[in-house]
Protein 1
Amino acid sequence: MRKTLQLLTALALALPMTSFVPATTTSTPAQAAPQSPQTQEIGTEESTSVRVGGDNRSTVIERPGSGYVKLHFTDLRILPGDVLTVSNPDGTEKYTYMRDLKSSLTATIDSTGFWAMSITGDKAVVSVSNKLSRVRVDKLTRGYTEAEMSAQPSVQSICGTNDYKDAVCYQSSNPTEFGKTKSVAKLLKNGSSLCTAWRVGPKNHMLTNNHCFTSTNGIEVWFNYQCPTCGGTTSATVTKVLANSVLKTNAGLDYTLFNVKNFETITSFGYLELDARVPAVGEEMYIIGHPAGKLKKLSLRDNNNGGGYCVVRAVRVNGSSSQSDISYMCDTEGGSSGSPVLSRRTHKVIGLHHFGGCPNQGVRIDLVAAQINPLL
């Protein structure tokens, strides 16, 4: 018994402080601070110096084996009527920028430099349509591949066996849960860090965590970043849009409500609805997101519950604010921040995932809804 107590004491001292509440407890607030938020690095930024213009009106920038390439431009001299183009080699993914460097494809950009939209794959073609125009690529981000991201597990948020699966794996067995996955997107910040976001309501509104971003500059939103077959390693065709503006954000409840450019290109992905109530302890639930930056996953089952569905373990748990969270053992990883937590009873959102630690935690959506409903 003494050895057991010594072992438990050592583990308690070694592990990050978090909120552990038995499943039989309905609302007792945990007093310890939860683990840090679950953002994830998914790329490496590096300096470079590649000039385009004059006799060199087009060039290919390559980083072999990259999942994507994202370029930063500076020393801009774009003549009236000229166009700067960034594309993949076959032109199936292409973004254009005009002289004022403001278009439906770009964020508001300072004339001293800007991040262009990422290009999927390991090659980006940069070109200007007038030889008198000139730009310089001064830095870039090499995005990690799916294999590289999978090799970096966050064990403190995988609660026992890793039970999440590719979203499409549940298309037949759990069609309702699968049907809710379309409106969830991967969030990319300047090419190197990641969270998850999702459409809330039928209008141009999306939700993620406050710790993911509070300013929209350089924020990309990737819809349909998911494999079309269970166990696949490549994504279906991705639709990318840029975050446009922050509508409301709150650090205490760790949320950011924002809208995007080119909203019409993502309306087909549907939206989620809020379930503005405190869920019941033991209520079945699931999480949709991009753990570790991976292709979209559905965390539905929990080996800690005998392989049954994930359940809410406690409510009114301390998070960024007192009693602001719910807790669960659904598996997550870095990059899951901002994922929607849905009830299997209503298939509406009951939480906004933000902390790992086993149990993992999400902000109570009833508290978030009280602040954002007037804007939806």
Protein 2
Amino acid sequence: MIINDFKNRIFGIKSVEEFNALALQAFEYQRENCAVYRQYLELTGRLNLTPKSPFEIPFLPIRLFKTQDIVTPLSTSSQKIQSTCSSCTTTAPSAEGVPVLRTPQAKKAQNAQGVPVFRTPQAPNTSSSVPGVPDFRTLGTKKAQNVPGVPIFRTPGTPITFTSSATTGMVPSHHIVQDISIYEQSFRSAFHHFYGEDFNLLALLPSYLEREGSSLVYMADSLIKEAQQKGNTGGFFLYNHSELLNTLQALSSGIQENNSEGRKTILLGVSFALLDFAAFIKEQIPNKDERRAIFKDVIIMETGGMKGRGKELSRSELHSTLSEAFATSAIHSEYGMCELLSQAYSFPINNGNTKVAATDNKAHIQQNDISVTGIFFTPPWMQVLLRDLQDPFKILSAAPNKVSAKTLSGGINIIDLANIGSCCFIETEDRGTLYPSAITAAYSIHPPFTVDSRIKNSELRGCNMLIE
């Protein structure tokens, strides 16, 4: 398989048939070139499997990202990476340009030229035109700048390691990304697919900014820069709620420079931070009509859980609280994790903020509660399948060329073709529901899904701890 051709094709997928063909190509390539995946296939007796559809491909347990360097070389000239399984006594040699991380908990990338070494995060620079919003001016550097934990990599092919926001005491996952341009194209293409290209973006991600190696911060940073380059408003906020409120008020009143009427503002925030901001808003602006005026063109996008900073809420409880505080029904969700280079999005289908069509009533999705239900749509190069919780190799999802009126529930498996440099086939520890009969139309070629809970006895992950 020619990697450059594969990378060019995945972001142009238009049909299920194209997706299936590329998924099978990815399986063949990663079976031969990803040492950890190959050993997993061998140990499970599936090394010589010849799948005829993606529904027959074995999925790699996501917890292996905690202990293994899961890398598929993106160049045929790269040296094969040997296994670093816990039962082995030797350390895996690195693929060309890929760091060998012997200790998953380590915060410094090791032994590879051009790999960032994260040391003391720099303090935010508040010299931007928006109060409290850090200013990003210097591009091209290989060190984090201005915002704690925000690495800026603009050189294609430069390896970077993303880590998960593990709950205190738990081992974080780590994902070695050899070509950051693939991640950038993935998150940017998906975001544009669902939200267009003309937006203001404000990020309320304190827990992510306060640690190193966050893929979410990297994504938000890039999208904020894109908004700023187009003359729109964008920036990070930590706990400076007053500055954030001032910015939103300026945008809603049209005072903010270059803010055209009707342009949507997206407030992306981790759940606990949005709840804190919601309480602040209600205290500062008791009148709900006044709050409604401020947030009439604002999309509230939650991601992640409480990060141990309060009682975990169900998605319904969270969205209800945010909706009441911000006086808006535009409560959206982002589903992503450091082990994946693509994201899924959930939004109210009757809300004018997005272009989502109505879904099939046979899927038991009410049009006015899809945001509360948390129905996620994937970009064309990402698909969710469900597995039997008693048999991880049994896929419950209906065949892609068949339409089923019933919903399916089980463990969430994800095919993410953007993960060609690691493993495209991930068995998560989330439980979900798939809606095969939902009409996806232009929003996704794959059925939408919900994330219902963590699977019993699995470690809670900081980036997705919402329990229904």
Protein 3
Amino acid sequence: MRERPLVLIIDDDVDYVRINRRLLERHGYDVVTAAVGFEGVEQARDHHPDAIILDFMMESNTAGAAVAQQLSEDEKLKDIPIILITAARTVKPWWGDKLSPNEDWLPVSKVMDKPVNPEQLLAELDELLHGGPPTAS
């Protein structure tokens, strides 16, 4: 049993990962990271995180959807909550409602637009893991 919840961040933006790793660690989370989709799936298998923060556009325009699909098809990983983070709805407005949680195409718990407000990210993550507001440490 872990003392602190473990979050996996899968994102190819090094600065975004660094900033959010610090944020999460300051608020009582342990963090592992991956820069590409296949590495993220491996990290999920190796560490079985409590939650995943997943970028949508990485090595391809829909890499995040492919990762979410792989995770949802793995019996040991399918129940891990995933927060999909994306700028696609802003940069490519035609994505619109297509980037919403969808059991068949986008099996994630929540979709949030980049840039994400840190307090909102903490609140969403804490809601998924604990059903309540985040606690500062």
Protein 4
Amino acid sequence: MAGLALLLIILGCVAFQYSKGSFVRSFGIFATSIISVIIAFNYFEVLGGVVLSRSDQSSSITPWAQPLAFLLIFIVSFGICQTIAAQLLDKNVKLGTIADKIGRSFLGLFIGLIFGGVILVVLDMSPLSSNLPYERFSKTNINPDNPEKVFLNGDGFVAGWVSLASKGSLSGKKSFAAIHPEFINSSFLNRICFSKTVSITTSANALDVPRKDGVWPAPDDVKNAESPQQPVNVKSGHRLIIVRLGIKKSMLAKIGSFSLSQLRVICKNQSQAESPLTGSSITAFAKGYMQSADLLKTQKLSDIITIKKDDITESTKWIDFVFEVPNGYVPAIVQFKQNFIAELAKMSEPDQAPAITPFQTDTETSPLDSSD
């Protein structure tokens, strides 16, 4: 259905540009739509954060803050840029009739792909059922490495283009490709377990992130808590890295229950670790958490963790989450739910690693149905 809707948007734009447009006008719409997408991707978190900071976590507007901010910024930016473009572009420039029609129809194809992609991105971030606007991941076996894509991949096109531009011609102090690699995947995984008890947003100060001794390699003798006699199964070319995060007792109401699909670390190549906000990155999701000094409690990405106030004896409950990270990469940024992001401490050497903080809790498997 999403693919058909995208195709209709594209065909509509092509038909409109063919019958009503001109090559110059079509080029102006194409250029301003690209500029507007870049602006929307770079500033939707700022505007969404303003709304979230002034909203109660239980408010109905809260989960819609970022997607609506993205849409609003795109519309306003497009309107402003289009007005400027209309004044600057010379409407008297004319090509041959055939060349003009072919050119503006070709541009109409990309205009439709951008507009359709923007709509899909907004829906990707919205608190909808996991199969809307399309089912990107299997409900029975979530595999972040094997996402399904909508026909023509409109959302991937706009997000991928912005990522490419942010680490190239538009690179700066902060790169979208570095902070939000695999943005569409993360958006779907963040809300795939969305329900009345599992929110897609949280407080911007939800987690406590150590500035030292917060990241280190997992012990070589780590075992699977389900089968203590067996070593943990690790993908070829990967290693297990522990990232210590603190659940603040004062923030429990805003954190609520969460799934491991909502917790991810952004990893940088070791040669680029000193510049975590620039260049490009990859995403790694939690494999589980340390149950004891040498036991890893593995979890599915759809497993839901609920921490109660009684589980926190002090102000913060520290949990040593374990991530499967490709060799040659180190965790640099942690992201939780839709709007928490923080830089991580530099990775400690194995001989300087802190003692494991054991953690145990009951988990439940989400039905992956937002209608609960």
